[in-house]
Amino acid sequence: MTDYSVLLPCVPRRLEQALPFAGLVRWTGATRLWQGQAMVMEPHQTFTGLAGAGFRVPTGFGVTLMPLRHPYEAALQARSVALATGEPVIAGFGPGAKAFQENILGAAYEKPLQVARQYVTAVRRLLDGETVVMDGPHLTFRGQLAPVAAPRVDVGLGVLRPAMARLAGEVADVVITWLTPPGYLRDVIMPAVAEGAERAGRTSLPRVVAMVPTGLEKEGREGDGPERLALAGNAAHMGAPHYLDMLGRAGVDVGSGRIEDVARGVVETGAFAGGDLPQVVKALRAYEEVGVDEIVLNTTAVHKLFGTQESLADLSAILRAVTAPQH
């Protein structure tokens, strides 16, 4: 059975902005509260603050960016959230865009797949209590986390294209995708994950988590058409080279240079789940049918255009519909 979770649809500046979404996870059928990398209030502090306010829920980071922290610090922060919440954590990582790597590190990763392999492997082994010795070529350190009993922390890898999917199949506990159409997951990503797992001799595949942007069309709410919502919530992604490459592989027209055409293709391929409630449910069921283990509802566009209450209302309605027994 596919789990459904919630993405925090804003970058909070105060902890109370995140509380309603943690409450939604606590009081509905949602499995987990997720947040991507934030550059205002750091996601680890947000989740720990929510726990201190009494909202201890399972959490996921989808994804934090490797250039910002050493793998030892990454493992320590993820386990700290597990200890603070008393709940399991999915700690997802990604190398980020080339320009981001250059800005933070002074130079882009020469071989990002090799860096990701070492990074994810180091974090997993640290969380398993091992003494980790890395002697290059990209990471050089020796360390062990102080032993302590803590809830499980799974290590995820952000995946858009086949090469990273194969790597995730080899070394990650969880595959985390964003804005990836269900057909592309079925035909490209999942076979690559399986290939990587087979190459590594793994007996089970990593779980697949799909971050799916969504929003409802409602009577009396102007400007909530799927294409507008897709653009409002994902304009930065739809202009980034690595996302454009992925979307082009998935059949989206990215050659015109017009972001409106990209938004239209995102809707047409099902990467954005929009329309009325039955249409949204049908679009989400397509992710279930291709074998996604966890679908994360991303209402960033609704929050941006219409505010917190509308975002919560959409999430509540969708969660009720997708978690109700099917006949």
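Above is the first protein from milestone M3; the second protein from the same milestone is given next.
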Amino acid sequence: MNSAATATIPTATFLGEHTIGVEVIFQLLYKEFRQSTKASEQNCHDVATRITTEVYRICSESKRIQASGAVESSAMTLARHRLQQCQRYYQLGSTRGRVELHSTLSAIIYRYINPPQRQLSYQGRLTIIEDFLQGFYLEALNAFRRENQLGTTYRPQSLLELAEYMAFTERYGKRRIPLPGRQQQLIILRAQTFSQQQPPETSVDIEQASEGSSGDGDGSWEEPAVHQLRSTMATQPEPEPEEDTLRSVVITELMSYLEQKQQSDCADYFSLRLKDLSTQEIETILNLTPRQRDYLQQRFKYHLIRFALLHRWELVHEWLEASLHTNLGLTPQQWEAYTSQLDEKQRSLLDLKQQGQPDEKIAKALGLSMAQLQKRWFKILEQAWEIRNSLVSGSGASTHE
């Protein structure tokens, strides 16, 4: 075995009776990084050392862990969690990793970015979030240097080190800060302060935020550029596939629709659903009871259906590959059964829609008001929607729905 793998790590000198456990965890991390990454031996050694040191620092400072009498098992659990996080960002790569981190943190703080006396649109809120996160990336980099006793000019120089930094940044933002009667995530506290006390100039380029500073506070942007971190964190995402682009349009339009309907809490809920957060996490972030969350969920579902079957039905059905040109996404057998249950006026309305006739002309031809036309069309689309997603219909349901 090489010297990097067998070297005694610094943490062993101050942990005394836990030295053996430290070595076991270090060897586990080192071996996993060697097998799952293309990083050099020294690089794997350094990252494994830092994670091991952090794990045992947490275990030694935690009264709960110390009182449990299970320091070694707790340390192993923490180490494996950090290993998995680091491996995940490594596998995503610099570009996708940055996008994932940015999205995760944005979802957490979305509802807390609301400057006083300003009614922000969805896009306006995203702009403020972007500005806030630039400073937060800088704060996290400084915290990473400080907690790992690294120099003020340290910068990630490999994909593994960048993955380590991004995993740290996610954990740093989610740290629970004790407050009177409750706890709050650190990034939420930072976002609330930023939102309430925005200085006149808050737009900071992400390249600058990735450069870092030598101090713990605002500091100067004058230190030598952190080239590796800057280039990887600021890289624009790769061009999205057409389906993903259309999905992004649907999401943006739905957010705008919810804002227009003054349903900002539904927009908050939707942004968290997009991150696949658990029900408990959503309730915690939005500070809701289970009953309140259930009510919000039902209200969101109502507006989602109105959006999908009335407000922007053409856009949504194009994304679902269920347009009028494809018989609303139904199979020939489903289409035959579906049209047979429509009344005469509904079939005429469907035929005219498929011919591309404008609503005004259709309403006149059928002797309907525009409100009556919309109501009938909503019902037609709703029936097709139910057939596509019916358990009875077999495998014809769209995976997007």
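Note on the second protein: Residues 1-8, 10-17, 199-243, 391-401 have pLDDT under 50 and may be disordered.
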